[in-house]
Amino acid sequence: MSGWSSDFEKQADSSESGASVLEAGITLLKSPGRSGSAKAASLLQPLADEGNSRAQLWLGRAYRDGLGGMEKDTRKSFQYFQEAGGREGMNPEAQLELGRAYMKGEGTDRNLIAAYMWTALSADKQGSWTSDAIVQRDDLLNRLTPAQREKAGELVEQLRSIYLKQP
């Protein structure tokens, strides 16, 4: 095990800060050529269970892509993206991932209208993901028929005004 990874794991073990634990778990998942899935999951799962949308997002990515040696499970991945991107988490990166999952049928049925809805919500927010969300949204828009575009637009507005409205 390399020194920096070992040091980071020790920091995560001794840290009381959720942010430090979160970053340690993400770093373990991103570590090339190592199998840090068990340690990463042990760090991220409690945070995800408490509703931390970034932990949910990264567990979703880990299960989808096999990060850190995690066994791939697209259904579990989709569930994490739903938790992170939906009403509880409202994480725009997770909303982009939900759009991608619906677009490709990863862990759920393929549904271009749902893909557009979640991607459009993500594209509304500013962040490192925004340009990807805009490209994906525009690609999806070109795949939809005029009737589907109209329905998707209505559903996006409903999501914004009712489902995702802050209490």
From TrEMBL:
Protein origin, superkingdom: Bacteria
This protein's name: Sel1 repeat family protein
Organism name: Endozoicomonas montiporae
